[in-house]
Design brief:
- The chain has helices at about 1-20, 25-30, 40, 175-185, 225-245, 255-275, 285-340; strands at about 55-60, 65-70, 85-90, 100, 110-115, 115-120, 125-130, 150-155, 165-170, 190-205, 210-220.
- By secondary structure, the protein is of the alpha+beta class.
- It folds into 2 domains: about 20-220, Acetylcholine Binding Protein, Chain: A; about 225-330, Up-down Bundle (Methane Monooxygenase Hydroxylase, Chain G, domain 1), CATH 1.20.58.
- Helix 5 runs antiparallel to helix 6, helix 5 (about 225-245) runs parallel beside helix 7 and helix 6 (about 255-275) packs antiparallel against helix 7.
- Belongs to the ligand-gated ion channel (TC 1.A.9) family.
């Protein structure tokens, strides 16, 4: 009987020891993520240095960036670790791709980098970042304010050639466009049309080929504000100028009315000058529209001045002739008086 108890206790003890320890610490030790293991941090995670690391980049306009890459040294079987499939570790423990945005003009303080990296059972790793991205873009303002702009956001490795890092997208353009539209609350004067994604390769000055992932963002300006504030008022001023031809010229009100319209158009031109960039090579359509109406009203003012002068010219001639007769009569009287005195 005592022997049976001992066997039972040993069996229970064996069962207890055979159950795995369900903790992240056990997985941490298995992956060798210790402070002394600098191999996972300082080197690109490939077993053969000639192998290429695929880095997937996903971006939405809201400002969230997700980067995923394959790590050959971090893989495990979830069944051995209580079905743990995702493991978050500090970003200082593993290697992270050094990506750069070529058009970036943002302040470094606007980047909020996640302090953790997610490790997956199949060896993939990912991290996210929030960034208020300010990037440079060559604008074509020829059809302003009915213009459509196309801006590129180019991701590329800072030091690794395409032999080491190949950039690909973690989603398609339609999916990223729909996601970006769903998270944008206020778009202002711009409307997001679509986002296209394509990869490219460029050669550096050292003749090395680098991988590039280009997001092409297509935007359309909402022109209603400019139509109400500029186009319609300028057209209204032109109609008023044409209607001023029915004003009587006798009192000189027509000329003063036209000059007032000309000054009003000048104020709108000054406002438009502050809104348009001074580096534009070609004059935008709305600027040509304003200058054209300004020129028409200016010619109309000159026409009003000419008509006013022509209408007042006969009366002026009559006054001059009457004044001339009076002078001649006075001269003749003086001569007559002088003869009578003699």
């Amino acid at each position: 009987m005592a022997l049976l108890r001992i066997v039972t206790l040993l069996s229970l003890s064996g069962l207890c020891h055979s159950q795995p320890l369900c903790s992240y610490g056990r997985l941490w030790n298995f992956l060798n993520l210790t402070t002394s293991n600098s191999y996972l941090l300082n080197f690109r995670p490939v077993k053969n240095w000639t192998d290429q690391t695929e880095v997937k980049v996903e971006m939405i306009i809201y400002g969230i960036l997700k980067v995923s890459w394959k790590n050959d040294f971090i893989e495990w079987n979830p069944k051995d670790f209580c079905n743990i499939g995702v493991f978050s570790v500090p970003s200082s423990k593993v290697w992270i791709p050094d990506l750069d945005i070529q058009e970036d003009a943002s302040d470094s303080s606007s980047i909020q980098q996640s302090p953790f990296v997610n490790l997956y059972q199949d060896g993939w790793a990912s991290t996210t970042a929030r960034q208020l991205l300010t990037f440079t873009c060559q604008l074509d303002l020829n059809m302003y304010p009915f213009d459509r702009q196309q801006c590129n956001v180019t991701f590329s490795p800072m030091t690794s050639s395409v032999a080491a890092i190949l950039l690909t997208s973690d989603g398609n353009g339609t999916q990223i466009t729909n996601t970006s539209k769903s998270v944008i609350i206020t778009e202002g004067e711009w409307e997001l049309k679509n986002i296209r994604i394509h990869t490219d390769f460029r050669r550096n000055f050292d003749n090395e080929t680098y991988s590039e992932l280009i997001y092409t963002v297509n935007l359309t300006r909402r022109p209603m504000l400019y139509v109400i504030n500029f186009i319609v008022p300028l057209l209204y001023f032109l109609i008023l100028d044409l209607a001023s031809f029915f004003i009587n010229e006798a009192r000189g009100e027509k000329l003063s009315f036209k000059v007032t319209i000309l000054l009003s158009i000048s104020v709108l031109l000054l406002i438009l000058k502050d809104m348009l960039p001074s580096t534009e090579r070609h004059m935008p359509w709305i600027a040509k529209y304003c200058v054209g109406i300004f020129a028409l009203v200016g010619v109309s003012v000159l026409e009003a001045m000419a008509i006013s002068f022509l209408l007042s010219f006969p009366e002026k001639v009559k006054k001059d002739s009457a004044h001339r007769r009076i002078c001649e009569d006075e001269t003749q009287l003086e001569r007559t008086d002088s003869k009578g005195t003699i």
